[in-house]
Write a structure and sequence with these properties.
The protein has 294 residues and is an all-alpha fold. It is built from 14 helices and no strands.
Length: 294
């Protein structure tokens, strides 16, 4: 059942490889392009066994050229599945999932079982990222100038979030900027302190490690990593819907923050600020500018 639930995650791996494959084909120049043409012409004239051999040879060449870390990508897929399971286990009734003998216990004690399970998953995600060498710049070069720069980015992100909200509501593309995933109903059952802990600490740290550190650590080509990280982060939160548009804008900003120094703490601070203060900032800014249609 875990593997069945992770089919969409496996498809992510396929599309990551496909993007790099297409990129490698169209951006070869000169002699490299001629070699590509010869290889492509040859592969279609080969026998099936030779074609399969050439396919693996080509795959190995791409992995070597772009230094793709398959181990890191596999960890990303598996940990992304695991990251979703505390919520599914604790609120199995809400998701209409299989009921276990411990489901009632987890649900009736959700005020501490959910934060505990999510914290354990975060620790595992952190340890594996550290072992894979993705956290080298985390504690380096912190100074007052950097802190003020980060505060400026936080204010810019909150202001952008307000403008995006005004845009999508005035154009009536969607009725709100929050996708209807039922998350607010679930977290609304928890104490306020527990909600703040999950939204302000656990979720930002876990998701920035997964969608930034693991992807950038697994894909050396920074442009490809930037695009995949931004789009996947938005897709996971909204799916293929109009809600993707506002999430994409915020995702690009957060990914850009990470890409400056490859530091997940910086992007997690921006991510956390949107989770904790996004709604309040929209209300506060609208008292001055009054741009919202309601």
């Amino acid at each position: 059942k875990l593997l069945w639930h992770g089919i969409d995650q496996v498809l992510i791996l396929y599309y990551i490889f496909k993007i790099v494959w297409i990129y490698s084909f169209f951006y070869n120049k000169g002699d490299a392009y001629e070699e590509e043409f010869k290889w492509t012409s040859k592969i279609y004239s080969d026998e099936p066994a030779t074609l399969t051999k050439n396919f693996y040879k080509r795959t190995a060449m791409i992995l070597k050229k772009y230094k793709l870390n398959i181990l890191g990508i596999l960890f990303f897929l598996l940990l992304n599945i695991l990251y979703q399971y505390p919520l599914v286990l604790v609120f199995a009734y809400f998701f209409n999932k299989r009921i276990f003998f411990f489901t009632d216990f987890l649900y009736t004690n959700s005020s501490w079982t959910l934060p505990l399970l999510m914290t354990l998953v975060l620790i595992l995600i952190f340890i594996i990222a550290w072992k894979l060498g993705y956290l080298k710049n985390t504690l380096k070069n912190w100074d007052l100038k950097r802190i003020f720069w980060l505060m400026g980015i936080v204010f810019f992100t909150l202001a952008t979030n307000y403008l995006v909200t005004v845009l999508v509501l005035k154009t009536q593309i969607i009725s709100s900027v929050t996708s209807d995933t039922g998350m607010s109903d679930i977290l609304g059952q928890l104490p306020i302190l527990c909600q703040k802990y999950i939204l302000g600490i656990i979720v930002p740290l876990s998701e920035e490690l997964l969608f930034r550190s693991y992807i950038f650590g697994s894909i050396t080509n920074k442009k490809v990593a930037f695009l995949i990280s931004s789009v996947l982060f938005a897709l996971v939160h909204t799916g293929f819907s109009w809600y993707l548009l506002p999430y994409l804008i915020l995702s690009f900003i957060i990914t850009w923050v990470y890409s400056k120094r490859n530091n997940f703490i910086e992007s997690a601070i921006v991510h956390s600020s949107v989770n904790l203060f996004g709604g309040s900032a929209i209300k506060l800014l609208d008292t001055f500018f009054k741009l919202l249609p309601y």
